[in-house]
Design goal:
1 helix, about 70 residues, about 15% helix, mainly beta
Length: about 70
């Protein structure tokens, strides 16, 4: 019996919430992105790189999802 060892992984994520930080505009945000992982020999995450549209996120913080 052989065991497959994975060295990389990925997943898609979606963040949904409200900008209620001090000075925030109380606007709803919804942003999608993804993570790419490199795994070590034990299958643990050794490196993680995330990607999302930062300009769209900043816009939503000020104007909201539908702004």
């Amino acid at each position: 019996m052989s065991r497959e060892t994975r060295t990389e992984g990925s997943f898609i994520e979606q963040l949904t919430g409200t900008n209620d930080a001090p000075g925030g505009a109380e606007k709803r945000v919804r942003i999608s992105g993804y993570e790419l992982w490199k795994l070590d020999n034990d299958g643990l995450i050794a490196e993680s790189k995330g990607y999302f549209d930062s300009a769209e996120y900043e816009r939503q913080l000020k104007e909201g999802v539908d702004g």
